[in-house]
Design brief:
This protein is of the alpha/beta class. The protein is built from twelve helices and 14 strands. Helix 1 packs across helix 2 and helix 6 runs parallel beside helix 9.
């Protein structure tokens, strides 16, 4: 049986082609696109300005990608909301809705699981299951917006998965979420975080997009980074930094570097010295993130004092470093933790 086409994953031109094949005029594509991305309907049957015959034809060939909120945690400290979404095939992903002075920001997943193998992350436990479709990524945004009643003002692709390992679907999602007939979110309000897949960074540079690129750095030398992040064995720091320079030259966009602080591992004076050698002279921002402890991992976060001390060491060396504001400290806010808990519960009931 042929799998049905996910309408929410189609761009307007693709919708026009599909509808033309059904003998429909070009304007129908705009109508369907509006139902999907402005009214955000959950089914074809809700598209009431289409004839019953056309809806029946679409029902036979197509579907509207939806997901369900399986769990929802709301922080009593700051109102941060963590969603565990159940997908059509029973898999789960997470998204986190955060409130800042500038508005609401949603961190979304791009894959079910992850194959990058970073040793401090819960998302990669169990490996990669599959990629998310553009429609599934959009559904994370639409469902969080519907449930919260808030307009999503910015999006961060930093949840479960490596965005550049699902390149085509992520690029299509970015085009759809910024479409004037949809959420119309400007590219400068979107951040994409990658562990450093060099060929895909070069490919992204060719797009000349205005999104913010964030590099998950987390270590200052190849030996340490390879232990924390296996991707570094394939694309070591020299190659990664050269790709970042090419990206900046192509786009003119400042790159952000994320650095998860792990007590006794990457938060010493020697690490600060090496970061100065690596990033000194760059138009770059270092985002320090105290690591979230994961039950299956041995890493621990340092004290508040040690985090501030490392920030000061970087600033003394001329580096622009800030500490990420921690939100949702009383909920399972680390990437992959809530999904992991759900999987373990399911395994216990087998």
């Amino acid at each position: 049986m042929t799998e049905k086409t996910d309408l929410r994953s189609l761009e307007e031109g693709e919708l026009a082609g599909l509808l033309a094949g059904l003998g429909q005029p070009a304007f129908r594509a705009g109508q369907v696109f509006s139902w999907l991305h402005q009214k955000r309907v959950a089914s074809i049957g809700e598209m009431t300005n289409l004839s019953k015959e056309l809806r029946a034809q679409l029902e036979e060939r197509c579907r509207v990608e939806t997901l369900a909120i399986e769990r929802k945690q709301v922080s009593r400290l700051d109102g941060t909301v963590k969603y565990l979404f159940r997908l059509w095939d029973g898999n789960h992903v997470e998204a986190v809705l955060m409130q800042y002075r500038h508005g609401s920001s949603l961190c979304i997943s791009t894959q079910v699981g992850c194959r990058m193998g970073c040793t401090f992350c819960a998302s990669t436990l169990g490996g990669l299951v599959r990629n998310l479709s553009p429609g599934e990524m959009l559904s994370e945004v639409y469902e969080a917006q519907r449930d919260s009643g808030r307009r999503i003002d910015s999006i961060v692709l930093m949840g479960i998965g490596e965005p550049l390992d699902n390149y085509e679907n992520v690029m299509k999602f970015l085009r759809l979420v910024s479409h004037p007939g949809g959420l119309n979110l400007g590219a400068r309000h979107i951040s994409l975080s990658t562990c450093g897949i060099v060929p895909m960074i070069d490919r992204l540079a060719e797009e000349k997009s205005q999104i913010t690129l964030s590099i998950s750095l987390h270590a200052s030398n190849d030996e340490k980074r390879s232990r924390l992040m296996p991707v570094n064995r394939q694309y070591p720091l020299g190659e990664l930094m050269a790709a970042c320079q090419r990206y900046f030259a192509k786009t003119g966009r400042r790159i952000s570097f994320e650095y998860a602080l792990i007590a006794g591992v990457n938060d010493g004076r020697e690490d600060a010295d090496e970061l100065q050698g690596l990033l000194g002279g760059w138009v770059a921002h270092i985002n320090l993130i105290p690591v979230n402890p994961v039950r299956e991992r041995a890493y621990a976060r340092g004290s508040r004092e040690s985090v501030f001390r490392f920030q000061q060491m970087l600033r003394q060396r001329g580096l622009n470093a800030t500490i990420r504001r921690e939100l949702g400290g009383d909920i399972s806010a680390a990437c992959g933790q809530l999904r992991r808990e759900r999987e373990q519960e399911e395994a216990e009931h087998v």
